[in-house]
Here is the input.
Amino acid sequence: MRRPSRWPRWTPGTPTGRTGPRPRWPRPSSALADAEEFARNAPDEARARAADIIAEARAREELIAQETEQVLREHGDTWDDVQAHMDSVRDSLISLTGRVTME
Here is the structure.
């Protein structure tokens, strides 16, 4: 986890790691206030993000359903065309040979 930039950076060179004056650490009350504010806002932000994700998923679901229906219609049309062609070929073979084939 990355520490906030307002915290001093440890530098080697002295037993304490400090090369200059003593750093000013964030005041505990400020950190506590930040944590409390985050705790208050986090559930609302999470709910808003969840609502956005669900809305995007529903929109995508609708698009996929429309595309699927289109593909199924196209395949159905192609199937009908192939069946009609097969019927025509079978009728032509029957008329040429004079024999009825077993199905």
Observations:
- Residues 10 and 44 are 36 Å apart (CA to CA).
